[in-house]
Amino acid sequence: MVDQPKVGRKRRYCRAACRQQAYLARKLAAAHELADDEVIVKRDDLVELQDALYALGSALEDVAGDVDEARTMADLRRALDWLVSQAEPAARLWIAPVSDRDS
Known about the structure:
The protein is an all-alpha fold. It has one domain. The N and C termini lie far apart (52 Å). The model has no long low-confidence stretch (mean pLDDT 86).
């Protein structure tokens, strides 16, 4: 089978729901006179993100010292396990712009 050349322009959005979300974000940004690279997020979401990033940064500093002082593979494993446990909240965090429905 031969691949047929694609006709037309590339898709900008993966699905209709993504296109709708982008439209709502543009509409809300225009209503609040925001620039294209600015969004409105809930304060609680921002605080949660800042807390998770602070914890992750602190964990990275701690683990860097632990790795330098590690004498065995078990010491390294403990340090890395602790780093993973501190990174998980930041990895699970997802912040979406506020939409008209949320405000």
